[in-house]
Amino acid sequence: MKFDIKEEDLIIKPYKHSGPIYIREQKGHFQRIRRYLSWFLMLIFVGLPWLSYQGQQAILFDVAHQQFRIFGATFLPQDFMLLAWLFMAGAFALFFVTNWLGRVWCGFICPQTVWMLMFTWVEHKVEGTRNQRIKMDKGGWNLSKTRKKLTKHSIWLLMSLLTATSFMAYFVPVSTLYADMFTLQWSGLVSFWVFLFTLCTYGNAGFLREKMCTVACPYSRFQSVMFDKDTLVVSYNSLRGEQRGRRKRKDDPSKLGLGDCVDCNLCVEVCPAGIDIRNGLQYECINCGLCIDACDQTMDKFGYKNGLISYKSEHQMAGKLTKPFRLKLVGYAVLTGVVIATMAVWLSLRTPLEVSVIRDRNVLYRLDYLGIVENPYTLSIINKTQQTLSYNIGLNGFYGANLVAPSDIKIAAGQMLLVPVTITADQHNLKHKVHKVTFVVSSVEDSTIQLEKTSYFYSE
Q1: Angle in degrees, 0-180, between the axes of helices 143-168 and 188-203, rounded to the nearest 10
Q2: 336: how many CB neighbours lie within 10 A of its CB?
Q3: How many of the other CB atoms lie within 10 Å of CB of 18?
Q4: Where does residue 76 rank: exposed (0-12), middle (13-18), buried (19+ CB within 10 A)?
Q5: pLDDT digits (tens, 9 = 90+) for 275-290
Q6: pLDDT single digits (tens) 185-215
């Protein structure tokens, strides 16, 4: 078959849009997956702050008191190692998924995409189809256009406000946040952050949209580093589709010298980034699969086989097999597993108790007329549980010494208490000038909560 391809058709046009992108609403397999997944993620995002555990908000990042509660565990700034592990696990998991399935994070899970398509859905319901929106925007202002624009932007602002308050509910107790909202008693700080997040959501999802993905987000720029010839990406089968051209449903494309692409342009109209996937892989493509749904819909109407646009690797497009177990993919998977396992071990060994031993640098020791050496200490004890607990202080590793310390020390949940203690010993029984001592702080209510801290006893 001989294709009559012009030289200008071989030139890939750069991504450029001088105006807004009018996204056509599309139904199909990948759109259903994204819609169900978006609803699931939205319910988690909005609902998590409302969960209660042991009479308290289950998840609360209390920045003011430097306490981060996640169900039964309380994390303090000293536990920020966990945050490092989470970031590392997330990064390697993202590398693994990207090398395997391309930019599915961007197309299906990224908050920018979820909110952008949610705002677009509202736009479609209020202002009409893509062609109706284009026609209305080109026309002059009238009562109908004003009403639709006000309705759309009012819904967008309401959604943005709900997004902002839902986000703030992770940092301010949810009951206090909404009670103060309805009674107009928000503090200046809370009001500022809610206003800022509302404005950012409204601007990003309503106006910037694809520009956040193509201009601001760095992920689109370095994603190709994680790709290889076995990575599944949205691909157009040019061998099957070209020469593209319009035709009637009953026409035989082989007699017309045409491929399967009917040049309906739906793949461009449904694309959130406004690109033409037929020009090849482009960094603006977020692998959302909307062009696949649109193309399959057209293929069904013409009685052609689906898959002209599909998720395929470069090897599959060339008629080869994709290697499921390749070095880069396995390496990312192993690193992700190692980081998650390390984080799990760290959490299992973590004790919900923090103890620090503070010495008086001005007076290392005191010696009385009876030959008794006395060393003063201050123990900083932090209760990292969510209940008030009592603690006892013991001494290990220094036989013949006496510990003077209070018993049943009550410390509220997440609170720190400074406890002065003293160790005394007979100078005649001391063989060395410096002795290692170990303080043992243990919970009265829970014997598994125990922590040892080492310090030194000076006699001269």
Answers
A1: 130
A2: 20
A3: 4
A4: middle
A5: 999 998 888 899 999 9
A6: 999 999 999 999 999 999 999 999 989 988 8
Kindly list the structural domains of the chain, giving each domain's residue range(s) and its CATH number in brackets, ordered by start.
Answer: 29-82+105-220 (no CATH), 227-317 (no CATH), 353-458 (2.60.40.10)
Q: Computed from CA positions of residues 283, 287, 292, 295, in that sequence, does the dihedral angle turn out positive or negative?
A: negative
Query: Are the C-beta atoms of residues 426 and 372 closer than 8 Å to each other?
Result: yes
Quick one: tokens of 82?
Answer: 């966990």
